């Protein structure tokens, strides 16, 4: 009898209950995994030791990514049997590769070359066996369809770029987790609009796994970091959402996002990519250093120097990215090049607003000093 029910069960018929179940399972597993992580981290001294570039002054556990990974594994293996099993199995395989690479990097040290090769392998598994790739640019620069191998190479580039972007912005409390929470919420919305229940379920599960982490990441006493384990898994998951969303939208002309998928996907991951490309340019072009060398030139470091707290910076960045996403949705029916230009201009302006404001206040203060010298 149970087998008959499962055979004819369609999650779309019970969508709200189905998504709530995925969220609740991930939330429960994540919340109940952290006590064990804390106990092991303290007992075995698996802590991040503050350095010159650190925004923290206390030794802190860095294994928060374990709870995020376990939550996604449980949801995938329990609810995945009624979804697109092949895609979920390969997605889980890719996440598992990055989980062990990230865990080794958090506990010991892993060379950038090995991490890079692991990211390529995880991405290739999905690209080759599910044929999930970016097939074109929806007419941006006149490119509608890419040749197969160029499509594969470009998709690999997107994976590596986004994975490392989320890894690089994980420099203050809540920023990587908060932006990942927003991105998963945005992708849950677009996948539900496209009736892709499989990816919507995983996106909602990721939200459930991140909420307990963010609660502890912002805590003063029992604080925890997601570490490379968490940032690589989250970056990989979001990069898969980006590729799947663009690929699916471009395959069907009747799709609501057929003419806007690349721009809409870019709006969701705009801040991580903006900060990564900006920091690479500063390091390579201005300081003549390796783009992977460490420094304090990230946007969040500059906001810290202006006196903003970790919570204020995270809230500001996440809200701006959400506003940018909503605006992009509003003009998704515009001509694709106009969408792209509006996104770049509006996004750059919004993320520069705080610095422009402080510069104007500084100029005002200097004029007052010049007019009324002491």
The biggest beta sheet, please?
A: 2 strands, antiparallel
Helix content: over 70%
- For the record, the count of structural domains works out to 1
Mean pLDDT across the residues is 87
**Shape, per Cα inertia axes:** globular
Give me the side-by-side strand order of the main sheet: 1-2
Any idea what the radius of gyration is? 21 Å
Q: How would you describe this structure to a colleague?
A:
- By secondary structure, the chain is mostly helical.
- The chain has one domain (12-371).
- Helix 3 packs across helix 9 and helix 13 (310-330) crosses helix 14.
- The protein has helices at 2-7, 15-43, 64-79, 85-107, 112-130, 148-168, 175-193, 197-217, 227-251, 261-268, 270-286, 299-305, 310-330, 336-371, and strands spanning 47-48, 60-61.
- The radius of gyration is 21 Å and the shape is globular.
- The model has no long low-confidence stretch (mean pLDDT 87).
- The relative contact order is 0.12.
- The protein contains 14 helices and two strands, in the order H-H-E-E-H-H-H-H-H-H-H-H-H-H-H-H.
- A two-stranded antiparallel sheet has the order 1-2.
- Its cofactor is Mg(2+).
- It is found in: Cell membrane.
């Amino acid at each position: 009898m149970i087998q008959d029910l499962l055979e004819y069960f369609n999650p779309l018929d019970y969508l709200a209950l189905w998504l709530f179940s995925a969220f609740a399972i991930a939330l429960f597993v994540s919340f109940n995994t952290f006590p064990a992580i804390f106990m092991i981290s303290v007992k075995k001294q698996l802590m991040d030791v503050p350095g010159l570039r650190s925004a923290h002054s206390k030794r802190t556990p860095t294994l928060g990514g374990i709870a995020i990974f376990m939550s996604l594994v449980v949801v995938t293996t329990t609810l995945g049997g009624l979804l697109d099993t092949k895609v979920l199995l390969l997605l889980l395989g890719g996440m598992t590769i990055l989980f062990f690479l990230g865990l080794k990097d958090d506990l010991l040290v892993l060379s950038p070359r090995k991490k890079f090769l692991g990211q390529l392998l995880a991405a290739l598994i999905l690209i080759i066996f599910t044929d999930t790739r970016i097939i074109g640019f929806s007419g941006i620069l006149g490119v509608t369809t890419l040749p197969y191998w160029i499509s594969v190479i470009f998709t690999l580039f997107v994976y590596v770029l986004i994975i490392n972007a989320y890894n690089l912005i994980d420099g203050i409390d809540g920023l990587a987790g908060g932006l990942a929470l927003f991105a998963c919420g945005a992708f849950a919305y677009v996948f539900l609009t496209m009736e892709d229940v499989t990816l919507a379920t995983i996106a909602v599960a990721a939200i459930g796994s991140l909420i307990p982490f963010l609660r502890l990441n912002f805590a003063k006493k029992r604080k925890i970091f997601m570490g490379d384990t968490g940032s690589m898994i989250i970056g990989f998951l979001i990069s898969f959402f980006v590729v799947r969303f663009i690929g699916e939208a471009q395959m069907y002309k009747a799709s609501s996002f057929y003419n806007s998928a690349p721009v809409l996907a870019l709006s969701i991951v705009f801040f991580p990519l903006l900060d990564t490309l900006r920091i690479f340019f500063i390091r390579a072009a201005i300081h003549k250093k390796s783009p992977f060398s460490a420094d304090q030139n990230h946007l969040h470091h500059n906001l810290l120097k202006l006196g903003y707290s970790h919570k204020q910076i995270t809230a500001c960045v996440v809200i701006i990215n959400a506003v940018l996403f909503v605006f992009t949705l509003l003009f998704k029916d515009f001509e694709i090049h106009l969408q792209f230009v509006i996104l770049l201009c509006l996004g750059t302006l919004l993320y520069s607003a705080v610095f422009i404001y402080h510069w104007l206040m500084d100029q005002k203060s200097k004029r007052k000093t010049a007019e009324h010298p002491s």
